[in-house]
Write a structure and sequence with these properties.
Blueprint: H1 8-20, H2 34-49, E1 56-59, E2 62-65, H3 87-96, H4 100-107, H5 111-119
Antiparallel strand pairs: 1-2
Helix pairs in contact: 3-4
Bound molecules: zinc ion.
């Protein structure tokens, strides 16, 4: 066994410094200050105030990320006022802003006209 060089770490640091500059061997706290700490905490606070994106909701036996889940106000059909949790209604609600029943009643066969009306 070779004897351990007590200067191994300082030598290593020196070598790293020569290759990458002294920024590579500085203690990270050297680059931190109260201003940065304050900004970081502010950022953290904002992040925590956001609605959780990855809360999972169980639907039809699947877990879905909440941000992919249709919002409550989109669950009420503006045509008939029906509130629905039916996934089938979600599809029509997303595309035509109506529930499935209203799609059949008012939209089917005149999709283009309907979407133009919605856009106007
Ligand atoms: Zn409806």
């Amino acid at each position: 066994m070779k004897e351990k060089d007590p200067n191994f770490i300082p030598k290593l640091e020196k070598a790293i410094e020569q290759k990458y500059g002294d920024i590579a061997t500085r203690n990270p706290s050297h680059f931190w200050n109260e201003e940065k700490e304050r900004a970081y905490l502010e950022q953290l606070k904002k992040e925590n105030e956001k609605p959780p994106e990855y809360t999972t909701i169980q639907s039809e036996g699947f877990f879905i990320k909440s941000k992919l889940f249709i919002k409550a106000h989109q669950r009420t059909c503006p045509e008939c006022g029906k509130y629905s949790f039916d996934v089938k209604d979600d599809l029509y609600m997303n595309k035509y802003s109506t529930c499935y029943k209203c799609y059949i009643l008012y939209v089917e066969g005149r999709e283009e006209k309907w979407l133009k009306k919605k856009m106007a």
